[in-house]
Amino acid sequence: MSATRGTGGFSFTRIGAMVLRYWYLLSNSWPRAVELIYWPTVQMLTWGFVQLYVAQNSSFFANAAGLFVGGLLLWDVLLRSQQGFAFAFLEELWSRNLGNLLMSPLRPSELIVSLMVISIIRLGIGMIPVTFLAIPLFGFNVWGLGLPLAVFFVNLVIAGWSIGLVIIGILLRQGMGAEALAWSLMFLLMPITCVYYPVATLPAIVQPIAWALPTTYVFEGMRAILVTHTFRIDLMATAFAMNALWFAVAVFAFYRLLAAARRAGSLLQQGE
To answer: Fewer CB atoms inside 10 Å of the end CB: C or N, the chain?
Structure first.
């Protein structure tokens, strides 16, 4: 990350310092904290009331309660893990602090781990209150999924990290001109990853693309639990395997983009 490495290898102290920095930014700005809760709440209320209407007019949805709200909550886990990862890095660009980090002993691997940790913190702040709000309002308790919920969560978070890692690599190489990717890229994947409907709904030509995304297996697994009360271990095993591949590719892409930014001299020129 910098020419001044300092002594020692991988440092959890430096990771802790970076996490503390991001935590101070978050805890000392109430609009940031409110925003983390605001958007999941708005989406949960919108789709929750849609689901109530559909459930009152369809025997299928009445017997498979939670498809919309469950899909929405899991989608937000994916979205917030990616955005929490990328937005924490954007804080360094917005505050013009990237140069200071580059001259510190901080290693790229330590930066990645610190972004993972703050992503989990932001995700917890934004999502935990919303999941409890869904229980009295719509009778859907995502925590009632038990162990499958943990499996879904881990897969979605890793996928979000993979995408976020590629985004910050592009930001390092292209500068703030690529900032929009942090908001828009996930929504490009949303229709293909089949958050609210099965893969069979997609045109046949698009279905292989959907099955190439590890997140698709998670949402298919969620529907299997809610509709047939079956935990599809095969889907989750495939999701884990694909996530391992995705994350390895993302790390490789990040280091290549970082090296390209160094060669191009763009690390300290992060304007539009």
So the answer is: C
